[in-house]
Design a protein that fits this description.
This is RING-type domain-containing protein. The chain has 344 residues and is mainly α. It is built from 14 helices and two strands, in the order αββααααααααααααα. Helices cover 56% and strands 2% of the residues.
Amino acid sequence: MEAFFSTKLRPTETCIICSDPFSADHLPVALPCHHIFGHACITKWLRNGSGNNTSCPFCRHEIYEPIAGAAFTDASIWTALCAQSPERIHDFMSTLWRRVAKLFAAQPNGDFSTSDLLEHALIPALSRTARSNGHRGPFDDAHSLVLSTWDSLGRPDSAHGLAIPLVRLVRLMTQTSAILPKWLTTVPRTSTLFWRANASLGTAASSANISWTSLVEASQLENPRFFPFLHLYTVLLSQNIVHSRPTHAGPTEREVEQRCCRKFGSEWGEWPEEAFRQRVVAVYMELRRYQMQEKRLSLRGHDEEKGVVTGLWAMAMWRREGSPAATGVAVRRKTSAGWGSGGE
């Protein structure tokens, strides 16, 4: 018995996790399995540990049951990312915009491979956003999964799993960045606008490519799914007018088509159908009239613009159908929606 007391009942003086001695600032705590750790160390393990972090790190006795449905999958992490606060989304998007600017500085022609976007923009932005949070969250999970998946596949020049919608987001930014003034990329509502537009195009199981098909469907105003993408596209049309060289006669229909379907959108698949291009021309000309002749503010991504966007595209469809009241109805809709009243 004396041998048992002397060999088996030794006091615990150090933490098993960090090997530092216990003290007033490093208090010991015991788990249900009776293993003792420093309070800060075991708390960090349970909150931020990877893998089986719901159990004792020494004997793997389960401490608590994981939350049902909290699977570490592409779909679950994408859902969690989309549920983040506008502030967190803006934090991530702000880092992405800076990374995109660095890509253009190194390669001004904008011909970026998927590997370029992953290595130099997306993965660093996820890492930076995860570190800024202070505790494990969806951006940390996204960084771990995207990086580990890419590494395990040998870093191919293609997106897989969770990287699919995130790479598509970066491509949307690179393909439209020349249209937006730099200040507009720094405001939270622009971050939300881009995030929602990209999210409307599909989840981690969809394509990394952007297609005119989604925009054509959205412009018919029958399915609200792709409306965030339509809102973003309409803002791009409006900003294109602001930063185009003004002419007395204005652009021809062909020039509008080139500006709005080639200057941005050239990577979105085949040239869109004629009916859609006619709607684009009608929306562009109406925006130009209001911004150039009526001296109204351009569209800048405010939520209050949704009624304006709906009215513009409805007007475009009515004009194509030859409705004589099209212009007047559209104007009344825009006025009631507060066209140009959003300040910045």
